Structure formats: C-alpha cells, structure tokens
Amino acid sequence: MKVIVPANIFYQALFVLCIAMPYFDNYEITFMVWSFTAAATICRKYSMEIIKQLACFAGILLIAFFAMFFGKYQMYNIIRDFTYLIKPVLGLLIGYQICKRSYTGIFRLIVITGAIIASLHYIKLAIAVLVLHAHTVNDIRQHAGYFSDFEVFALILLLFYKRFDLGFSKKQVYVLVAFIGFSVFMYMARTNFIQVVVLSMAMKNYFKINRRSVILLSSTIMLVVIGYSAILYYNPKRNGDGLEALLYKIKLAPLEPFRTHVDLTDWKEFNDNYRSYENIMTMKQVPAEGVPAVLFGKGMGSTIDLKVKMWLGDQEMRYISILHNGFMTVFLKSGLLGIVLFIISLRLNFKKRRSVLPRVRELNLLMLGTGIFMIISAWVFMGLYFLADTKSILIGMFICAREAYIKQQASGHLQE
Predict the structure, then answer these.
(1) TM segments (predicted)?
(2) If DSSP states are collapsed to H, E and C, what string results for 282-340?
(3) Please, what's the b/e burial string for 91-118 (b: 16 or more CB within 10 A of its CB; e: otherwise)?
C-alpha cells in the first residue's frame, strides 16, 4: 500500500506539538516549543490586521518592561513575567505563520488535533479513576484537567461541518462529535459550556440585532435564569458527589469574580471567592503606589501581596505575580494604558472582512464568537495569558485563513 506523506507535514506536526504541549502542564517546555516554532515558521510579509493584534500585546509587554525600572524586583520574577507576557505574541505568530505557509486543510487539522487532545484526556481520566482512585468531580478534574478551549473549537467546527471544508464523511463527523463532545463534557468546566453556547450562537448569527435574534437571546436568557433558579432551589452542597460539585460551582458563578469584599476569617467564603479577593488586593495595592503605577502599572517582576500564605497549585505562596483575571494582570503590569491596548486587541476580533465568499463570512462569525468569549475568558481565567491557553494560535490562524480566501478570490482562483 502506497503511503502519501503530506508536503506540509512538518508544519502540521509543529501545530499539533504546540497545541498538545500546554496540556502537560510544563510551561518551560511549552515556551521553548512555541519559541522554536515561531522562529522556524517566520514569514517575509505580514498583513496589517495581524500586525495590529501583535502591536497590542507587544505594547503591553514594552510598557511593563519600562515600568519595572521604577521598582526593585527579583530577576527570576522579571524573566518569568517576560515569558508570560510574550505568550500571546508567540501564539499569534505561530497560528498566522503556519497557516500562511500551508492554509489548505487547516480546519481538518484543527479537528484531528482536537481528537488527539481528547484521546489524551481519556487516558488521564482512566489513570485518575483506575489508578489514583479519584471518584469526585473535583478529584477527577484535578488529575485529568480543568478545561479545554481548543477541543470546544474543534467541536464547533464539527457541529457546523457543512460550512467548513473538513473532508470527513457524515458518519465520521458523528463519531468525532461524540468522541470530542464527551471529552469536553467530562471536564465539567463552566467556561467550556459557556464557550459552546457563545460560539454556537455566533455561528447561527444570533448576535446580529434583529427581531429574530432578540427573541432567541431573550429566550436563552430566560432559560438561563430559570435553570439558575432551579439550582438555587436545589441548593447543592460544597464538596458534593458527582454533578452536585459542578452545580455548586455554577451556583457561585454569577458573583464569584465580582465581589467587592471577602472575609479572610471565613475560609469557606475566602475559598469560594478567591478570584474576587485577587481583584480586591490588586485594586488596593496598585493605586497605593501612586498615579504612575495606575497609568503604567508596576512592571515586570511586580507582585500582589495576598496578606496570607495559601496553597496555589503545588506550592504555598503569599506574593503572586499573575492573577486569574487577565484584565487585572495587565493592570498590575502595564496599568490603564495596558488595559486600553488589551481592550483594543479584544475589539479587533469583532472586525469583519467584507466578502461575498461564504468561507469568509463563516470565519467572520467564528471570530465574532471568539471575541465575545475572550472577554469572559479574560475576566475569569486570564484569557490568552493563561499558561495552558492555545486560543492565540487559533486566532492567528483564523486571521490568516480569512486573508488567504480573500486573496484567492481577488486573483480569481476561488469561486463562491
């Protein structure tokens, strides 16, 4: 049997590697792989659209770099912050450059990679349950993973497979939907469930203001309110078994990141509202440094004093340099000027490219949904700055694919 090796196999392998590495929870190796890939796939020309995105995150990085000279920080913290703050730049470059060198079949590649990630998740689940004897939702998530935004994107492409050139039969699509979909469900992640809804609504064009979309959005909001009321009535308990643990987290969700006061003496309240506590400390400590800190941040290497030691990840810490909230992280490092650039970067995802091509219109909708979800993701889980996040690669890839389709149309090589 003749084996055909794709001409772009090198770039496809780099893409799979860049997506897979963050799931192994070792940022040092991830950073090296991403840096190598960004350098190995560098292009001669870049569009103004990707340059604008890169400029926003590069600007945040530069502001943090210059602001650090007004403080005295440990070199380790400075280097660590640099690797964290440059991560979105590397991701955007990787996605754009790989797509630019070989954009044919990128959506199929995303789905296949999503299936690979789902396979890894199933292996982790089996180890968690059979070897580590994890039986509660919290224990399973601790050992098998907390969420996977990338798998959701792969799932969305499959759910709307008729709009994308995936190259799968209908039977293959159904199998992949079940395979990846169940993996997404088993993360029991609130943000992933929200992501599925937001991206699906965007692909259905429900965010366009008209009579139909208003009715559908109103109905969705009503269903959410009814569902949340039912959860409140059920009153799930802390550390409950099975789905009760997920329902308890959903019960906390509306207020957890927005509280303005958290009682340190009440460990339950403190644990349930830790994200808010980080925000409160940031909004107290950055302005206390004066107007320059508010405008330009405290720079790379700066930290927030939690006032108490607590276990974060695998170590006990009192001073943290990165927060759950992406907006607050940028505010700490680059101040209000950094926040402005961060908002501009989010806003760029909403910008449509005019075209009669269905493929471009579908990418416009996908980018719109991504932009909306990015706001939620940045508020509760750092957005593109999260160490295990891979959305920046996808955003760079979507931007390049859209440009490639428009360019082909202009040259007459791509028909409607």
Answers:
(1) 7-24, 50-70, 82-99, 105-132, 144-161, 173-193, 214-234, 319-344, 365-388
(2) HHHHCHHHCHHHHHHCCCCCCCEEEEEEEEECCEEEEEECCCCCHHHHHHHHHHHHHHH
(3) bbbbbbbbbbebbeebbbbbbbbbbbbb
Angle at 338 between CA 336 and CA 343, to 5 degrees: 95
Tokens 């008209």 correspond to 210
d(CA 176, CA 159): 10
3-state secondary structure 237-252: CCCCCCHHHHHHHHHH
pLDDT of residue 7: 59
- Residues whose CB is less than 8 angstroms from the CB of residue 24 and which lie 6 or more positions away in sequence, other chains included: 30
CA-wise closest residue to 115 among 158, 164, 162, 160: 158
Give residue-wise pLDDT tens across range 97-141: 999 887 778 999 999 999 999 999 999 999 988 888 887 777 888
- Provide the token pair at 370: 């991504």
Q: Which two tokens stand for residue 215?
A: 């009715």
Number of residues assigned to the chain: 416
Q: 329-350: b or e for each residue (b if 16 or more CB lie within 10 Å)?
A: bbbbbbbebbbebbeebbebbe
Those residues with Cβ within 8 angstroms of residue 59's Cβ, 6 or more apart along the chain or in another chain: 338, 341
What's the pLDDT at 1?
A: 41
Taking the C-alpha atoms of residue 32 and residue 80, their distance in angstroms, rounded to an integer, is: 13
Give the span between the Cα atoms of 389 and 258, in whole angstroms: 23
For residue range 223-263, list pLDDT tens digits in order. Answer: 766 766 776 656 676 666 656 666 666 666 556 666 667 76
* Token pair 């643990």: residue: 245
Q: How many other β-carbons are positioned within 10 Å of the β-carbon of residue 293?
A: 22
**Pair of tokens at residue 121:** 């998740």
- What token pair was written down for 308? 């108490």
Q: Which residue has the tokens 């943290």?
A: 320
Query: Is 5 strand, coil or helix?
Result: coil
Whole-number pLDDT of residue 233: 58
Return all residues near 274 (Cβ < 8 A) that are at least 6 apart: 262, 324
For residues 160 and 173, what is the distance between their CA atoms, to the nearest angstrom?
Answer: 10
Mean pLDDT value of segment 345-359: 83
Q: pLDDT tens digit string along 372-413?
A: 999 888 887 788 888 888 999 999 999 999 988 888 776 665
The Cα–Cα gap between 137 and 129 comes to 11
